[in-house]
Amino acid sequence: xxxxxxxxxxxxxxxxxxxxxxxxxxxxxxxxxxxxxxxxxxxxxxxxxxxxxxxxxxxxxxxxxxxxxxxxxxxxxxxxxxxxxxxxxxxxxxxxxxxxxxxxxxxxxxxxxxxxxxxxxxxxxxxxxxxxxxxxxxxxxxxxxxxxxxxxxxxxxxxxxxxxxxxxxxxxxxxxxxxxxxxxxxxxxxxxxxxxxxxxxxxxxxxxxxxxxxxxxxxxxxxxxxxxxxxxxxxxxxxxxxxxxxxxxxxxxxxxxxxxxxxxxxxxxxxxxxxxxxxxxxxxxxxxxxxxxxxxxxxxxxxxxxxxxxxx
Amino acid sequence: xxxxxxxxxxxxxxxxxxxxxxxxxxxxxxxxxxxxxxxxxxxxxxxxxxxxxxxxxxxxxxxxxxxxxxxxxxxxxxxxxxxxxxxxxxxxxxxxxxxxxxxxxxxxxxxxxxxxxxxxxxxxxxxxxxxxxxxxxxxxxxxxxxxxxxxxxxxxxxxxxxxxxxxxxxxxxxxxxxxxxxxxxxxxxxxxxxxxxxxxxxxxxxxxxxxxxxxxxxxxxxxxxxxxxxxxxxxxxxxxxxxxxxxxxxxxxxxxxxxxxxxxxxxxxxxxxxxxxxxxxxxxxxxxxx
Lengths: 312, 290
Known about the structure:
The structure holds 2 protein chains of 2 kinds. Chain A has helices at 2-13, 16-19, 25-52, 70-76, 79-110, 117-129, 132-142, 149-156, 173-198, 202-210, 215-243, 247-252, 264-273, 278-311. Chain A is an all-alpha fold. Helices cover 76% and strands 0% of the residues of chain B. Chain B has 15 helices and no strands. In chain B, helix 2 (19-47) packs across helix 14 (254-274), helix 5 (80-111) packs parallel to helix 8 and helix 8 (152-176) crosses helix 15. The chains are: A mainly alpha, B mainly alpha.
């Protein structure tokens, strides 16, 4: 009590404009509701999940005991897990690459001023705002094997002879999902890159122009290096997001046909809520978490190196 | 860089916009618009067509005749309004709480003296990168212990935590653009931090707050996995779960699905088009640039 009083007096002795800074508990208290909500839904469950992954908890039976790393051992020999792991990596790689490249091309083209630019930008937000479940159903209808309009258009153009079963055949299903994801996310990627492009001073491009650089050189030597941090950060966020893909697969194919589109999130979800294996399912999601950390680290190191290079 | 005069000339000639260049830009713009809006237009057209025309093998973009059967089906036959009501309650409550907690936190981080503020911001960002499937099982266990399964509460709490990082980051960036001198003036007049927040900072950043609110509303409105895992009856299921379950045993009701898609998406698309400028500014200013 005595110390508290002395402290208050000390505070009051300061000039009035400094007093604000000494309300120590005040500012931090303002963070409490937000941080408490975030911690309650993320930190605590993650720890609980790690704990669950070391048990054989199954909701459909009384089994619930500590089994150490048995779940992880089983995971390493589980062909379904590796199958889903490979699909997830394939999907993440393909969609991130396509979205970044197409997004970059769109951003570069739209960086110029032209009539109706606002309209185009507004249109680009439409796929982003549509619920993913709706996107899945929409692509289900567009790429339907019998009455899908894509088949109709391709047949009319003479590109295919017979209807293609896009998401009904094991060879094409994952690629149909990649297409749906590219449709949904590329415009947003382009908007992010466009914003990045607009922060690059025009004078730099012009200086290179006066020095006689061709448009190609100006792109590779001036704009791309300056855009690289934005590009890499956007790609990293995209990759981390793509890695968690659930809605599109679950609604469009449910992981089929013949497990050809099974990804880690859908496999985990089935283990959890169909088989009710909470212990094993948690081990699966932990393995996913670890892979995701590696992806983030990989990108992080690469970005830091690029930034250092740029700094020198 | 050194260049021969000839080189310089070609470069300059290329910079002056040739019509071909313009043409490329407009072709690309047209392609982007077609790409973005085309599939949804097809969905709208589908929702107004008769089932027999949809499977006739001769698809047309203009519905002939126009029918509202699918819209009647989803409301009368499938109680779609119930899902809509659930979604409005969940997303609305989430948005309100997200804005309240998030804005106060962002204000404290941007304006008040907080030790390790960038550590806290980094932590918040890292949390938003968690694979969500990793928390669904433990949260399910917790929710069933609390008796929170099949309630709005569990969804609101989860969406609140998932939405807060974006709200805090975007508003943090926004609040930083307001001149510090305004706060100082209020402070000298004896205003406490929360008074400054509610009477000065918040009114001054209304566009940012509205945009962020819209973003968290869209996120909560569209979320699927947690809603699927935590709710099992129509009294609490949200729209995405409703649409995902629209599959009949015998056939896929594409027309009904399209009608439902239009009903849930049209309000969002309208809002997004109205707030387009603010959304892009908010997302790109706060989320990508540091």
